[in-house]
Design brief:
It contains four helices and two strands; from the N terminus they run αβαβαα. The protein is an alpha+beta fold. A two-stranded antiparallel sheet has the order 1-2. The termini are far apart.
């Protein structure tokens, strides 16, 4: 198991212990998907790797955590950030990735089938 995988599993365990409903970390496996040649021009989209500004040799990880509500998210995140294991994991000398390249935001589901 790589250092990043150990970090991801430890972080996920902490979030779940503090009440997150789901914790997912996904690796980009198709950085340059091909659009069908006959796709309408308005449907041709930017590949995720380009959008993330990745360079040769970089790996894109997309993670998301599911909560009951925004209020629940705030409660869980407060506990997670206060957890000594997370504080240790976020020590700049222990980070297995460049945190300045990490983005964060809260999303509300528009469609949930």
């Amino acid at each position: 198991m790589t250092l990043i995988e150990k970090w991801q599993k430890a972080a996920g365990k902490i979030w779940i212990e503090h009440g997150a409903l789901q914790y997912k970390e996904c690796v980009l496996e198709d950085a340059k998907p091909a659009m069908p040649e006959d796709a309408p021009e308005t449907c041709k989209i930017t590949p995720f790797g380009e959008l993330a500004g990745t360079k040769d040799g970089e790996t894109v990880i997309f993670a998301f955590i599911v909560y009951k509500s925004r209020e629940h998210r705030d409660e869980v995140n407060k506990k997670v950030m206060a957890d000594p294991r997370m504080q240790e994991a976020c020590d700049e000398n222990n980070m297995p990735f460049d945190p300045s390249r990490m983005a964060y935001g809260g999303f509300k589901a528009l469609v949930d089938l």
